[in-house]
């Protein structure tokens, strides 16, 4: 458990260091994810050890967004003044992005997976 | 026995009370969501945020004081992003086969999320600073804050918009996909991961493991795509 957690933090640290030092547009934790993925592919032992810990953390991914969400208390005035604009932009863009993403996925999957051997 | 207010002011100044409150509020909201049969509108993040906001208001506590305790939870967003390697690894064969639809849906969804938000925000007269704050809202929190800052937005407000976006996505995904008759779990998961990051991914993980894996991939890849797209799109809309 502690070993796995140390490994996860090492991946994040390496990702952050690489993103900063090379001025990459890719965020550090995402590079860390790529690093962990490569390690899991390379070693089945690592993969078996990391899997339950990763699944456990991701099961309560929602919890991790709560502190940022509570930040709303500091922005009520600004949000209130722009409520309509922000509300419309946020809801419409999210709904449309989901619809476009899912429809494009289905369309391309049909085109590329139509071949029986694919 | 000492005065209650004295004990309270001692406790409320440290991180313990607010870290505990964050976990308990989440557990209460999550239990309520389970009670309601995981209905899309019963989002545990929304419930916990409302409970905690009321508690802060009732006790006259500032967000800065609250965050001293809550930062320990907030910090885990980074390691959790790293952990998205796990579903990616578990479903690696399925993901490899679906590489083309993934890339196409990722680019289309990401572009729509940023461009529609900026176009509508501008049409409704938002300031350039607010547009910069709004642009990265479909990206997962730690990444969105960085993008917002580099564009000249307000990172703390971006964090709030990120959470609101995630809630919208988590609430609409199931009814909307049913209405559009999209039954492919891969398409449903990827779309919600791209548009509504970790909160959408959490919802997808609840509904179906394959949808969860694809949502995780969508969220991770969109962090990269938005970092590249947002500055360019913002320049178009300013």
TrEMBL record, chain A:
Domain of life: Bacteria
The entry's keywords: Cell membrane, Membrane, Transmembrane, Transmembrane helix
Protein source organism: Roseinatronobacter ekhonensis
UniProt-recorded name of the protein: Antiholin-like protein LrgA
The UniProt record lists the keyword Zinc: no
Coiled-coil zones: none
Compartments where located: Cell membrane
Short name of any one Pfam family annotated for the protein: LrgA
Membrane disposition: Multi-pass membrane protein
Stretches that traverse the bilayer: 29-46, 58-78, 84-105
TrEMBL record, chain B:
Membrane topology per record: Multi-pass membrane protein
Primary localization: membrane
Keywords annotated in UniProt: Membrane, Transmembrane, Transmembrane helix
GO cellular component terms, A-Z: membrane
Cell division is among the record's keywords: no
Subcellular location, record wording: Membrane
Residues spanning the membrane: 7-29, 41-60, 72-90, 102-124, 157-177, 213-237
Pfam families tied to this protein: LrgB (PF04172)
Source taxon at top rank: Bacteria
Annotated protein name in UniProt: Inner membrane protein YohK
């Amino acid at each position: 458990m502690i070993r796995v957690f140390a490994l996860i933090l090492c991946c994040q640290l390496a990702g952050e260091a690489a993103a900063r030092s090379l001025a990459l547009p890719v965020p550090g934790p995402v590079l860390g994810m790529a690093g962990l993925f490569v390690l899991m592919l390379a070693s089945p032992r690592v993969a078996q050890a990391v899997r339950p810990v990763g699944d456990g953390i991701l099961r309560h991914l929602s919890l991790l967004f709560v502190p940022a969400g509570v930040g709303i208390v500091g922005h009520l005035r600004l949000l209130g003044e722009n409520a309509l604009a922000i509300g419309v932009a946020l809801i419409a863009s999210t709904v449309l992005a989901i619809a476009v993403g899912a429809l494009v996925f289905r369309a391309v999957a049909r085109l590329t997976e139509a071949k029986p051997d694919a | 026995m000492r005065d209650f207010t004295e004990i309270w002011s001692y406790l409320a100044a440290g991180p313990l009370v607010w870290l505990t409150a964050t976990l308990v509020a989440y557990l209460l909201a999550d239990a309520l969501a389970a009670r309601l049969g995981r209905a899309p509108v019963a989002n545990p993040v929304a419930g916990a945020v409302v409970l905690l906001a009321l508690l802060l208001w009732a006790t006259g506590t500032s967000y800065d004081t609250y965050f001293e305790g809550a930062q320990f939870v907030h910090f885990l967003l980074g390691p959790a992003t790293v952990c998205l390697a796990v579903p990616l690894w578990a479903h690696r064969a399925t993901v490899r086969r679906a590489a083309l639809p993934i890339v196409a849906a990722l680019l289309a969804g990401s572009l729509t999320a940023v461009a529609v938000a900026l176009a509508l925000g501008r049409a409704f007269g938002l300031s350039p600073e607010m547009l910069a704050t709004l642009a990265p809202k479909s990206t997962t929190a730690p990444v969105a804050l960085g993008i917002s800052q580099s564009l000249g937005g307000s990172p703390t407000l971006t964090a709030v918009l990120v959470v609101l976006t995630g809630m919208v996505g988590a609430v609409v995904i199931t009814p909307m996909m049913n209405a559009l008759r999209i039954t492919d779990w891969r398409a449903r998961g990827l779309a919600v991961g791209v548009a509504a990051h970790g909160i959408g991914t959490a919802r997808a993980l609840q509904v179906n493991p394959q949808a969860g894996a694809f949502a995780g991939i969508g969220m991770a890849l969109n962090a990269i795509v938005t970092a590249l797209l947002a500055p360019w799109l913002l320049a178009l809309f300013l």
